[in-house]
Amino acid sequence: MSLSGALNSAVSALNSQSQAISMVSDNIANASTVGYKSVTASFESLLSSSSSSAGYASGGVGVSARYNISQQGLLTSSSSDTAMAIDGNGFFVVRDASGSTYYTRNGDAVIDDASGYLTINGNYLMGWPTDQDGNVTVGETAATLTRIDTAAVQSVAAATTTEIIQANLPADAAVGDAFTTTMDVYDSLGTASSVTITWTKTAANNWQATFSDASLSSNSAVTSGTVTGTIDIVFNEDGTLASTSPSPATISIAGWTTGAADQTITLDLGTLGGADGLTQYSSDSETPNIDLKKIDQDGLAYGSLTGVTVEDGGNVTATYSNGKTYVIYKVAIATFANADGLTTVSGGMYAESTKSGSATLHEAGVGGAGNLLGGKLESSTVDTTGEFSTMITAQQAYSAAAQVVSTVSEMYDTLMSAVR
Fold first, then answer.
1. Alpha-carbon distances, residue 31 vs 110, 172, 201, 382 (angstroms)
2. What's the pTM?
3. CA 368 from centroid of its chain's CA atoms
4. Percentage of residues in the chain with pLDDT exceeding 90?
5. What's the rounded Cα separation, in Å, for the pair 33 and 108?
6. For the domain 160-298, what is the CATH superfamily, name and number?
7. Among 393, 317, 270, residue whose Cα is nearest residue 23
8. Are the CB atoms for 61 and 9 separated by under 8 Å?
9. What confidence score (pLDDT) does residue 154 get?
10. Among candidates 65, 23, 20, which has minimal Cα distance to 342?
């Protein structure tokens, strides 16, 4: 019956347009939500196949939600050191407390005060452990993903293993003349000490380096370790380094009063035949003296964790009070064959589905994954101007459908009156 068909069609319009208004409402509510992807109403006609030239059977309209998950949002700057955004394809990988894995474009990560883990909306951000240079130390697979623990390395210290010395020993010094310099050393506990080097000219083009015991840098009157080793140095006639004995030049420090481990230090005195380390040239002075250019060592004083930053490319770096910065994790990026097929979950999270396919994990910028930018956040993709336009259209369509219901009701009343 055509009146029933008209009523059914109008009711389907009321239902569909109300759902469209719900989607508009959600979009507007999340216009400022980081990483939010807008949802749009997709309408389709439901015309009955029984319609013919002799009669028309109305079918109405149906609606479904289309999630624009793969749509790129505008990237904006953030003052948070742990904020990040993906420019291009991919999602951050997170896990909840039960171990379920989800994916998100919301990169507003924070450090959980209680545990030290990086979290996004209460879920743990996942990544791979790295060495200090940012190289992943495990296979880049789902099985090796781990929670990013910013408290994993709370402090650092390292013993000195190499001293690089660049200096000119005066060729015009007399045999028996001696000069002193001081070098810093760190033990395995990160305690700083100093060692005095005495450079003595033993013959033409020949020198000998001897070393004092180590003394605390904080109190030079306190001996902290026993140094053993003597270096004999020979120069070529052109002032370049000819040889050292032993080769390579080394000294040992034992008996640290701090309780640190014994250590051996290699002295990098330059290239044999070169002038990039020790040289012997005339000082052209009435009082010849050693000209010290540089003494550098690779030890590290004790330092405690002061901050964590997510860098471009997904490196999670830890900064310490001694000024050192090390990479501790790499943020993982997941890509999908059909990202728009992901299942939406609360909190801006998505879950795998048969439509999306399984996740493929990459480092940022590799294998089709987008670039990861630190200090950025991805804005919501909602266009409020467009949403207002859609809302007005849905409102008018809803009012018109309601008017159809009212008209059909009056027509039913007329029909019933005629029957009476």
1. 22, 78, 78, 5
2. 0.77
3. 18
4. 76
5. 10
6. Flagellar hook protein FlgE (2.60.98.20)
7. 393
8. yes
9. 87
10. 65
